[in-house]
Design goal:
Chain lengths: ~400, ~290
């Protein structure tokens, strides 16, 4: 009897898998309906839920504005929102549902590189373009066999941030010697450190020391005391706010006054809490967007966002907003709500103007856009500068 | 020299936590793995006292010590006492269970996010020669020394301390002599846990960052410190804590910070092979 149950179970599993696979032909049905459906596959719960929720808020604002202005191609845009629980396996299952059952013409999300990569095979299988606002890992859009046809992103890549910060250190801070203190537990920090080093050395600079720490470390006094003896102009600190905040605090306590440079991992109010406002002087980090930007498109976005959500938008909100506008722009240029044509329109983008900067898509489906370098003085953003390629 | 100062401040924390390990081990031969989590809860209690009740550093630390002491006693009564006569491995597994329970219950209530401690000490920086010492480091070292002196006094000059030493040498004989064994064990848990609570508040202030899993690593390292100095021996815990702190800092400072944890645990292995009783351990050792 037990054996029979087991066989029955396996049989049911196989059958359900086969059925799930068969659903593939049922899409593209949206052409006849009176709305255009766009899927949102985001981390609404789980470990990186704040990234997903912030992105979705931005996307909703963009789509609301578009629908209020009459929609696209004479139709309203309908968002189909699913929660991937910050889990790569769940990403695949909800992406399959969106593409096979809900008849979406494009999917926005997930927010993180790992989850976004998990979605790629499904997108290719169903021929639905997918777009992420915040997946910055270098290999998201390009695989071993070249560019991934259906995968697009709207943010710059990690290697670009490292390069841009090295250029910034050289040009704006007149730095010739730098120290790198990197998070050894993340690919993100390793990529940043590598590109910073390469560019900084190419520009004639010298990396006098490179130190590493592990995630969740709390005491950095030993490595900071060690680098204090060296002579250098800037410290490059690729990593996330949780450790970066503590490092900056301990460095300033030890009397290290050199400018500290970082990347978008610094972008969190927690950085200020952990480091304290007194320590956050002469701190520069690259980001996708700054609320200090005086571009009329940006100020209009900030106002609209505040009116709807009653708070200042962060970078994820801004990237989400751009994702919404960008997809609809591509549908308009495609002339019809057909996934294949939308994909071609996305790839052929020239000079799309968004709140996170205007860009064109390069041949690797990466936007060519400027980066924003934010300077912190006493813990608040005191200036922001756009740095080009 | 600066690295020594860094190492001693870190080591003082380990020493405070190691005291609790060593006292509990000395008296009931239990490695209380939940000890690191009591330290974590101590940090949160201090956080609550400072943030919500607007208390200063000393009142917050005292409240945290009292609360952790109580928590230690409750843990002992609920989780360990029913297993007093069970095999030691059963109690050890219970201790690991209690540890995980505390971590995830705290995570449920306070969320897994990192929190930053409110600044209640104005942090001044002193230059002594070319060594930089800040107020927080001084507080940590002074508090640790004061608490250790108090502990030595309790263990050697009071009736409770005498009872503790008696129970640790021979529980049955102590009971025959009219010592209330259960009560003495409770006192031990209370004092050890209070030390951990104090360490929690000090760490919160020093590093300005607390989270529900912050107790795991320091807990393990304090355990290494206790073994290093000789488990069951109070001065050994202090010596072990300070040594581990300084060694860890030296490894980061002159080698690579990525090896520091590996070195600490390699020391544990070496000690267990070469001198299982620890540096201060003797054959006829006096335990808590």
């Amino acid at each position: 009897m037990k054996k029979f149950m087991r066989v029955a179970l396996v049989f049911t599993l196989v059958l359900s898998m086969a059925l799930a696979g068969c659903g593939g032909d049922a899409n593209n049905g949206s052409a006849e309906s009176d709305t255009i459906k766009i899927g949102l596959n985001y981390e609404l719960s789980g470990g990186v839920a704040t990234y997903g929720q912030s992105s979705v808020d931005g996307i909703k604002l963009a789509i609301e504005e578009i629908n209020a202005a009459g929609g696209v191609l004479g139709k309203q845009v309908e968002l189909v929102e699913v929660d991937n629980k910050s889990d790569a396996a769940e990403v695949v299952s909800v992406a399959t549902k969106l593409m096979s059952q809900d008849g979406v013409v494009a999917v926005i999300g997930p927010a993180t590189s790992g989850n976004f990569k998990a979605e790629e095979p499904i997108a290719t299988q169903y021929g639905i373009p997918v777009l992420s606002g915040s997946a910055t890992a270098d290999d998201v859009t390009v695989g071993k066999d070249g560019v991934k046809d259906y995968v697009f992103r709207l943010c710059f890549s990690d290697s670009f941030q490292g390069t841009a910060m090295a250029t910034y250190a050289k040009d704006k801070l007149a730095a010739t010697k730098a120290v790198i203190v990197k998070d050894s537990s993340s690919d993100y920090a390793a990529g940043l450190a590598e590109n910073f080093r390469a560019t900084f050395e190419k520009n004639g600079g010298e990396i006098v020391a490179e130190e590493a720490y592990a995630q969740n470390d709390k005491d950095f006094n030993a490595i900071l005391t060690k680098i204090k003896k060296e002579s250098y102009d800037v410290i490059f600190l690729p990593g996330y706010y949780q450790e970066a905040g503590l490092i900056i605090k301990q460095a300033r306590d030890l009397g290290i006054t050199a400018p500290v440079l970082g990347a978008d991992g610094f972008d969190s109010p927690k950085l200020t809490d952990l480091a304290g406002t007194a320590a956050l002087n002469d701190v520069y980090y690259s980001n996708h967007y700054s609320s200090l930007d005086e571009d009329p498109a940006v100020t209009a976005f900030i106002e609209a966002f505040k009116a709807k959500f009653d708070r200042d938008p962060d970078a994820f909100n801004a990237l989400g907003y751009d994702c919404g506008k960008f997809i609809v722009d591509a549908i308009t240029r495609a002339g019809e709500a057909n996934p294949e044509k939308i994909k071609e329109a996305l790839a052929a983008t020239e000079d799309f103007a968004g709140v996170t900067g205007s860009f064109s898509m390069d041949e690797n489906h990466n936007p060519v856009k400027s980066i924003v370098v934010i300077k912190l003085t006493d813990g608040v953003q005191s200036s922001s500068e756009k740095v080009g390629l | 020299m600066q690295q020594i100062v860094n190492g001693i401040s870190l080591g003082s924390i380990y020493a405070l936590i190691a005291l609790g390990y060593t006292m509990v081990y000395g008296i009931i031969k239990l490695i209380n793995f939940a000890h690191g989590d009591i330290y974590m809860i101590g940090a949160y209690i201090g956080y609550a006292a400072i943030t919500f009740a607007h208390l200063g550093f000393f009142p917050a630390m005292v409240i945290s010590m009292i609360a952790c002491g109580l928590l230690g006693v409750i843990t002992e009564k609920v989780a360990y006492k029913p297993l007093r006569n069970a095999s030691r491995i059963a109690v050890l597994i219970t201790a690991i269970g209690v540890s995980l329970l505390m971590e995830y219950v705290m995570m449920f209530f306070v969320s897994p996010d990192v929190r930053s401690y409110p600044a209640v000490l104005n942090n001044k920086v002193f230059h002594i020669g070319n060594v930089i010492v800040n107020t927080q480091q001084i507080y940590i070292i002074v508090t640790a020394i004061v608490l250790m002196v108090v502990l030595q006094f309790i263990v050697h000059k009071t009736k409770v301390g005498k009872a503790m030493r008696a129970v640790s040498i021979d529980k049955d004989a102590a009971e025959l002599m009219g010592i209330k064994v259960d009560q003495t064990i409770s006192y031990t848990f209370a004092i050890g846990s209070a030390m951990a609570g104090a360490a929690g508040v000090l760490v919160g202030l020093y590093y300005n960052s607390i989270d529900p899993l912050m107790g795991i690593m320091p807990g393990l390292k304090a355990f290494v410190a206790a073994v290093f100095g000789g488990i069951g021996i109070i001065p050994g815990a202090m010596l072990g804590g300070l040594s581990i702190g300084v060694i860890e800092t030296m490894v980061s400072g002159y080698g690579s910070s990525l090896f520091k944890d590996a070195v600490v645990f390699a020391i544990l292995i070496l000690i267990l092979i070469l001198k299982p009783a620890g540096i201060l351990g003797k054959n006829t050792r006096e335990k808590v």
